[in-house]
Amino acid sequence: MTKTYFMPTSDKARLIWLNNFNLKLIAYAAILGILAPALLIVSNDYKAFAYMVAFKAAVKKFAKATTLFFKKLSNATPETASTAYPTFPGAGTVPTAVPVGIIPRTAILVRQLKANTDCTDAMKEDLGIVGTDIDPAFATAKPDLTMIITGGFPKGRYKRGQTNGIHLEEMRGTATAFAYLLTANKPTFTDMRPNLVPGQSEKRQYRAWFIVNDIVVGVPSDIVTISVG
Nearest CA to 83 among 95, 68, 100, 93? Predict the structure, then answer.
């Protein structure tokens, strides 16, 4: 039966997946020939991802507390004692800095593991790099993706139907493989990235999968190519 894409799409689910992948990869490192530098990259990527998930949650909580404090500071019944300003609590110890592209970098490693003849089906399942069976209702679902230039940026459109959105990938410049770009839950989206070389047009390619309950399903859309610049 056709399988879903192995990588979850929500930050919370990805954090759980990355933690499992990091721990299980350490356990299988000797068998699969994974050296210490590669393990360190995976470990640092997980810690960086976990820190930023916590940081985003802390920022959201702090923004809410700040708004409430400002309303009280501005409009509450006057008091004689001064009130301390809110301070951002942070998100714990800052981990080692890592290069951008944690998810695409991990996907490259996963492809290498799947091609490793020493990586058994049981190991793949344990590492979480095998998708689950697709609901037959979505097994052949294929997005009808279109792209146009609006305001100087590529704007995409698709029909969501009974799905929750799309998982979008792109390729440009010297890239030779598609990489994750964004998850769109609305029927339109815009790629706001500047061109790799300012003032020079570039070709971008896009493809998309449908998402149902944070799981990538169906088959990829036709590749859409557009010139930007």
Answer: 68
**Per residue in 98-144, pLDDT tens?**
999 999 899 889 989 999 999 999 999 999 998 766 566 677 899 99
CA 188/CA 80 separation, integer angstroms: 52
* Angle, helices 36-75/102-115, rounded to nearest 10 degrees: 150
Looking at the domain covering 136-228, what would its CATH class be?
Answer: mainly beta
Q: What does pTM read for this prediction?
A: 0.61
What angle do the packed helices 11-32 and 102-115 form, to 10 degrees? 40
For residue 182, the Cα-to-chain-centroid distance in whole angstroms is: 7
Query: 4: which 2 tokens?
Result: 């879903």
Mean pLDDT of 159-165: 89
Domain ranges (residues) in the chain? 11-127, 136-228
Rg, C-alpha atoms of the chain: 22
Query: Cα(204)–Cα(57) distance, rounded to whole angstroms?
Result: 33
Residue among 227, 226, 224 nearest 168 (CA): 224
How far from the centroid of its chain's Cα atoms is residue 40's Cα?
Answer: 20
Distance in angstroms (rounded) separating the CA atoms of residues 92 and 58: 10
For the stretch 144-154, pLDDT in tens is 999 999 999 99
Share of the chain above pLDDT 70, in %: 95
